[in-house]
Amino acid sequence: MAYGCWKSRRDKIVVSLQPMILFDKVFKKFGSSTALDDISLEIKQGEFVFLVGPSGAGKTTMLRILTREILPTSGTVTVDKIDLTKLKNSEIPKLRRKVGVVFQDFKLLDDRTVFEQVALALEVLGKSDSEIVKAVEHTLKLVEIWDKRNLFPRQLSGGEAQRVTIARAVVGKPDIVLADEPTGDLDHKTAWGVIQLLNEINSWGTTILMATHNQEIVNTLKQRVITLKLGKITKDNTEGKYE
Amino acid sequence: MSFRNYVKFAKRNIKRTPFQAAAASLSMFSAFLALIGFLLISIGLQLTLQFYESRPQVMAFFKDGTTREDISAIEDNLKGNYQVTKTKYVSKEEALQIYKRLNQGKDPLLTELVTASTLPPSLEISTITLQDLAPVAEILKQEPVVEDVVFPEDVVSNLSTATLLVRIIGGVIVGYLILYAILQILMIIGFKIRLKRNEIETMRLLGASTSFIRNPFILEGMFYGVVGATAAWTVIYIMLWYFTPYIQGGYLGEIRLLPPNPILMLSLLIIAILLACLVGALGSFGATRRYLRI
């Protein structure tokens, strides 16, 4: 994979001034341990942001707050003008339909084919069968896994499984894609394939927040990098450097 | 999400765990077998009671030599003082005809040896309520021209007690079985929810609403209920048809209970299905509340 190709792609990226994600003085405590310590940041619509830091830095906690799996202990978090701290339980599904999530452990359902995994994301949205068939076909072709549509997760390689997860995350055209270590268990070549795909999705204007340890990927893509350490933001580097 | 999709998801759940589906349906089958059985027994007893109540309830047999005028006087006296709805005079000749009809096809000696002169004239009296039977019988017994008074006090009283007992015992057993079925459904659906925990978690993260997750489970519970109830109804209906000649011919005689009235059976099926839907939905709803925390 030629890393230089990203530069030309970046020209297409649409970054709006509209803030898509807003953390304001956010604290999160689990018992006596502090996972997030006074986090304030703003991510604009269409940005591709890396969230980096050692294990336990608070990356996953931030992503879990954004999907409203957990609530911050204090402070406010806003996603597309929705205050997550004031969101009612019944409104959580609406938020999650705006946010596609790519998991490191894929979270694919053992008893569903590739096609069904991706279709599920649209069934949740209440789309019609014809819409589902059309959108799933389009997305699976986009992630280059259409020929594996009838296979089950156990029949896929790690890279293929991750592509399915990405397809499932983006098929509903979410405003934001959160990726938690999506290249964690993948080999170098496959990892780059996944990143290429996320970059392409970003080029449509989708905001991407990706937690990763992969220094090479971060430094090559030269996107905004937010570094966390012990729950605090230690650097917010727009030059795309991960040291 | 459309109802069709809920059905699709429920179908998938059922297909993928056939043994649990069979266990749930069998549990509902047992409950509804008892429920429909007790309902039919109760209806049968009620009809039997009505049969006895609709027949002449007190029969007074008169001594030889009693004139029609004497009997008419007694008749008028009863009509004037008690809740008597109907009286019917049966002459010696009519009594003979009744006797012959009842003994038709039996030993010919039984009919040949009996003549109208050997049978007493009688008066058949019906009252509005069963409570009026005893006073009427007492009055008749005091009449000097009355030889004997017969009224089915024990049959009616026993039938009333039996109907009441069947209703109480049946109600308790059916209540227990329904509760048992609800808990069975709750357990089985709860178990399935636990098995599908990862899938449910993923669906939630994809933005699935509460109804998207809950409704297929509720439909699944309703399905088990409907299958169990329909199977129980079918088995009972087939058994009733099969045993009709033995029960009706051998035990019930004049009381026409079998074969069962198709409209009654259809009504029972509809009631059973509606109740089954409710039981299945309640069990599943309980399971989703308990295990999904939604």
UniProtKB/TrEMBL annotation, chain A:
SMART domains: AAA (SM00382). GO terms for cellular component: plasma membrane. Transmembrane segments: none annotated. It is a peripheral membrane protein. PROSITE patterns: ABC_TRANSPORTER_1, ABC_TRANSPORTER_2. The keyword Cytoplasm does not apply. One of its GO terms (biological process) is cell division. Keywords: ATP-binding, Cell cycle, Cell division, Cell membrane, Membrane, Nucleotide-binding. It comes from the Bacteria. It is found in: Cell membrane. Pfam families: ABC_tran. One of its GO terms (molecular function) is transmembrane transporter activity. Residues 21-243 form the ABC transporter domain. The keyword Ribosomal protein does not apply. InterPro entries: AAA+_ATPase, ABC_transporter-like_ATP-bd, ABC_transporter-like_CS, ABC_transpr_LolD-like, Cell_div_FtsE, P-loop_NTPase. SUPFAM superfamilies: P-loop containing nucleoside triphosphate hydrolases (SSF52540). Its main location: membrane. NCBIfam families: FtsE (TIGR02673). Homodimer. Forms a membrane-associated complex with FtsX. PANTHER family: CELL DIVISION ATP-BINDING PROTEIN FTSE (PTHR24220:SF470), IMPORT ATP-BINDING PROTEIN (PTHR24220). Belongs to the ABC transporter superfamily. Part of the ABC transporter FtsEX involved in cellular division. This is Cell division ATP-binding protein FtsE.
UniProtKB/TrEMBL annotation, chain B:
Gene3D superfamilies: 3.30.70.3040. InterPro entries: ABC3_permease_C, FtsX, FtsX_ECD. One of its GO terms (cellular component) is plasma membrane. GO terms for biological process: cell division. The keyword Transmembrane helix applies. The chain crosses the membrane at residues 21-45, 164-189, 222-243, 263-285. It is found in: Cell membrane. Residues 57-149 form the FtsX extracellular domain. It holds the Pfam family FtsX_ECD. Residues 172-279 form the ABC3 transporter permease C-terminal domain. Keywords: Cell cycle, Cell division, Cell membrane, Membrane, Transmembrane, Transmembrane helix. Its main location: membrane. It is a multi-pass membrane protein. Belongs to the ABC-4 integral membrane protein family. FtsX subfamily. This is Cell division protein FtsX. It comes from Candidatus Daviesbacteria bacterium GW2011_GWF2_38_6.
